[in-house]
Structures are given as structure tokens and as C-alpha cells.
Amino acid sequence: MIPARFLRSAAARLAADQPLRRQLPDWGQVHIDRQLPFVCVYRRPRRSRDGLTARLITTQASYVAGIEDEIAPLVRTIAATLSPVFGGFLVFELWETPSRELPGEPGAVAPGFRILAPRGEGLTSTVQALAAELTGVRIYKHPAEVEARFRERIAPPRLAPLLSAAELGETGAHLIGLGIRPVHRDPRTRDVYPLVLRALRRQLYRPFAKTVFEYSRVHTTQTVRHYHSLGRRALVKAAWEVDRGLAEVGSGFDFLLQVTPINLEAAWIAFRRSRFERAPRFLYRPLPVLPGMLKRKLYQLPLTRIEDPVIAVLFFEKQRELDRQLSMLLDLETRNFLYGSLQVFGRPDETTLRFARQLLDRIPARTRESSAGRFLKAPVVAERARAEIARLRESMPELEAQVEIRDDVQGLMVSRGNVLVGSGVTVPPSRAYALLQHEVGTHVLTYYNGRAQRFAQLRAGLAGYDETQEGFAVVAEYLTGGLTRKRLRLLAARVVAADTLVAGASFVETYRKLTSDLGFGGKAAFGIAARVHRGGGLTKDALYLRGLLGVLDYLAGGGDFEPLLVGKISARHIPLMRELLMRKVLRPPPLRPRYLEDPLAQARLERVRAARSPSQLLLESLKERTG
Asked: Fewer CB atoms < 10 Å away: N or C end of the chain?
């Protein structure tokens, strides 16, 4: 049983608005982030040794899981302590209900739910909110079957009510019950299906949170802006352990550097000498790690112990991406490398490919955008990059980014927050500012904004971040007036080149497509083909144009910059970043691009907001420049 001193201690911590997280004496746990107007409860039958169903409530900021007849005093203490704070309190109990007692066929894989609520207590809107959200739950595409009943007795089968009517009246609390069909178990053996349990756990998170939000709106004195603000802020130790582990694995190799040839200039000379008939032989850096050892470490991380469903999803995705990247490094210079690239970066989609061809048709191979023979060389570009970093350092003195001129790098790139400038780089003065906003104002800035957060993954990059990050960087070029026709033509050619790669074209065939059909000069076509065919076939370059269209579309829909600035994220993570910011798990990003203060950039941003479509906006900008 739970000792009286445990109950007194719990009440004192909650009254002082302190977090409460403790193991219960026989089995179970109480976790309450802070003063909240609810608690989710799961009672494990005394004769059972299985506690996995309790994981369905551990996504919430306030829960108690324990032995059936032991936790009622603790729940009563919690309700009695917090109900006066909010003018009301919701006890939300979950249990497994035998399939025969729910609609649908016994053993069906469709999720089933029965909501039980007391009559005559004004909980209709709360029950309706819960039922509406539960209908959206899907397991293997099977929709949920949901029913709601109002009755006097609210309790799991064969158990007494958690709190009596008198106790609920004394504490000022309400009780709602939810029976669930145990689709996460084999109906005969009772063995658990772990992926189904994970999917059910993740999908129940929002119905629970939105139900509490509706209850708070109607039955408490608390003003809640959004259901996210009722979410958990405190994270379990396993979350930080996994974050560190993923960062250690990711820092063990630099994927982009490993798949970038170190002999591009020599390869171009050899290719030219062969009269463009023999594919060049690319050389790569030695692999500094054993991928198998990193994979072992990757899959030893305790991801299943992470309670926060948003963090769990982000980390599961990153684990899978790192695994695939490590496999690609093992498959370097084989056909399997391309298959890995398709898994990580995808192939050019029809919409982006069609737009790329439109751009190539409308932009002539030779444009009047030139610098009259004047180009900025590597030392000048590096110095300007240092000046741009110095401006960022004014807002973040601890910023450590360095600029390095390298012989083994082509063009500019950012690696782990540092700017690498190829020793042979030349940049037209008209493009310099836009290029620096791409590399420093986007890649360096989001790296250090991510570093300012508690999660290392936001500086390393969440899974699939490349498309949105590169698209955001090209949007920076547009907003600064440096997205030239020549640059757009290059981005379009990369998409077409990636498409020829996926279709089975050789290096020489891709090169001929770029020169003969698209009008690119020899060395420019070589550079595009090399980027696409490196390693055995890399489709990453198709992401730039697709990402540009995606970010423009997001901004045109009224999307704000803040989620994009938090760190290196994918577009699909924007709602999750908003949620984590609202829950105060993340802090507002300290760095902002300086071009956002430029009136001309703001005017261009307004044009984006008013655009009919991203592709139309870019095509109209081409007409204006031609005129």
C-alpha cells in the first residue's frame, strides 16, 4: 500500500507547484509535470504481471499507473490538492475492455473505444470532443469504432470505481472512463504487437490532450490558449540519453563530405582528355568509422523508454535515417548506393520535374546576368563570410563558427556549423550577398539556433531536414534579390540530371543531356553530373528546387519563420516545433537572418504571401527580368 507519508509529500509538492515523479511501492509510477487540472489513470489488475497498457497514458503530463486497489488514495489526494487551484479536476481512467464487449468482430484489428461518463454532470461537450478525436484513430488503415454511454458506474470490468460519488463530490472532481479494445495483443496468446502498441500510444496522445482542453474550457477557471499548453514539459532521462547517443553516432561521420569526391579537378581534366567518352574515376576520403559498430550503438539506445510521443517520433525517424546513411557509406560506388539514396532523399517527383523543365525552356542557356569578367575569389569570399558570422556573433557571443579555405571542397558548404570555401571558388559580386545568406544566414544560423536548444538533434538535423533546409536557403537567395535566372536554371538542371540517373543513365549520358539538350557548358555540365553520380548515384540535388517550392508554399499559406529558425528541421516537423515551443520544451530561436530587417526583403516576402502559387511567382519574376 502507499504510505501516508508518501501521500503527504505528494500533496505538499503539488501545492507548491513542484513536479512529482516517483515510483510506487509495489508497481507503478506517478508523474505530474506541474499543477494541471487533470490526471490520467491506469490500474493494473493485481493478478496480472503485464503493465504495457499503462504506456498508453504515459504520453501525458499528468498520470498515475499502479496496482488496482492501491492507488485510489493517491488519486484522491491529487484531486483534492489540485481541484481548488482550478475550480475543477478531471480524472481520466483508461482500461482494456474484452473485444466481445465492444462493437465489431472479436479479435478484429480495428481499434475500438467505449467512453463512460456520469449522467447529469454537464460533461456532454467533453465526451463529444473525446469521441470526435477517437474516430480519427487508425490501425493498419482500419478506422476506430467508438461509442459513448452515460451511466452511474464508471469502472473497468470486475473493479470497483476508482473514486466513489461522495469522494468525487468532496474533491470537486469528475471521472470519465475509456475502455479500449486490446488490438495491441494477440487475442489467443496475449503476446504484444510492439508496433501496434506504439502506433496506438502515439495516436491516443492528442485525443486525451484535446479532451482535457475541452474539460478545462468548460469546467475550470483556467484560461488555456491551446491544448498543447497542457502538454508535458519535463522529459525522462531516457530522452536525453537517446539524444546524446544519436548525436554521438551522427558526429562519428560527415555523410556529405564522405560522399564528395576529393579529385574533382583532376577528374574533369581526365574526362576532357577522353573526349568526354569515359566516365571519370572519382576518389573519396577513407571512412573513419566502422558502420557496423555505429549501427550497434544506434540500436542499443533506449528509445522505447521515451514517454513524450513527439520526441519519440523525432528520434525514431533519426535512428532510421542514420542507419540508412551508414548503409550507404558501406555501399559507396555500388548500385546499392543509389537504392539507399532513394530511401533517404527520394526521387524527383512529377510536379518538381515538370516545373524544372518549364524553367529550362524559358531561361536561355546564355543570359545577360554577368559580372563583366569580375569575380570574387576564395580569400575575398572567406573574408565576407567571416564578416557575416561576426554579425551573428553580436546576438550570440558564444557562436564559434569558423571559415576555412579547402582544396578538397568545390564551391561553398557548411559542415557542423563551419563554412568551408573551395580554394578555386569564384563568385559574381551580384551573387555574393545571396550566397552568404544561403550558407551563413541559413545553414550556420540554424545550426547555432539548434545548438541553443537542449536537443543536439536540432543542430545535427532532424530526419529528412535537407529538403526544407536547402529550400529555405534558396528562399533566402530570393528574398535578398540574388536568385538569378542562371541560378534557377542550375537548380532545374540538377532535378533533370537526378531524373536521368534514376532512369538508368550513365555519367556520360547525363553529361550529354546537359550539354547537347540543355545547353550547359562543358565544365558546368560536368559539375552537375558529378554531384548526381557521386558515390554511385545521389538524388539529394533534386531537393533544392522541391524544397524551394515547398517553403514558398508554406510562407504563402501564412506560415511564420520561427519554426524554420529553431534548427535543422523538415517541413513535416513544423507543427511539432510549434507544439514544443508552446509547451516550452523549446525556447524561441535567438538568431534571426539579418535580411528580414531589409525593407526590400520584406517587400519580396509580401509578394510571396500574395502569390497564387510558388511556381507562378518564380515564372513571373523571370518575365520581369526579361522585360
From this structure: C
Query: Angle, nearest 10°, between helix axes 543-556 and 485-502?
Result: 120
Dihedral sign from CA coordinates of 120, 123, 129, 130: negative
Domain ranges (residues) in the chain: 4-234
Per-residue model confidence as pLDDT tens digits over 155-203: 998 899 999 999 999 999 999 999 999 999 888 888 889 999 999 999 9
The 10s digit of each residue's pLDDT in 249-304 is 999 999 988 999 999 999 999 999 999 999 999 999 999 899 999 999 999 999 99
Asked whether the CA dihedral 538, 544, 547, 549 is positive or negative, the reply is: negative
Alpha-carbon torsion 309, 311, 316, 317, what sign?
positive
114 DSSP assignment: E
Run of H or E residues at 356: helix 350-362
Which among 281, 355, 331, 354 has a CA at the least distance from the CA of 538?
Answer: 331
147: β partners: 114
Instruction: Quote the pTM value.
Output: 0.89
439 near 413, Cβ under 8 Å?
Answer: yes
Q: Are 112 and 104 in contact (CB under 8 A)?
A: yes
**Beta-ladder partners of 148:** 115
**Strand pairing partners for 112?**
145
Fold of 4-234: Aminopeptidase (3.40.630)
Q: Which three cell numbers stand for residue 271?
A: 574526362
Comparing CA positions, the residue from 492, 369, 380, 476 lying closest to residue 425 is 380
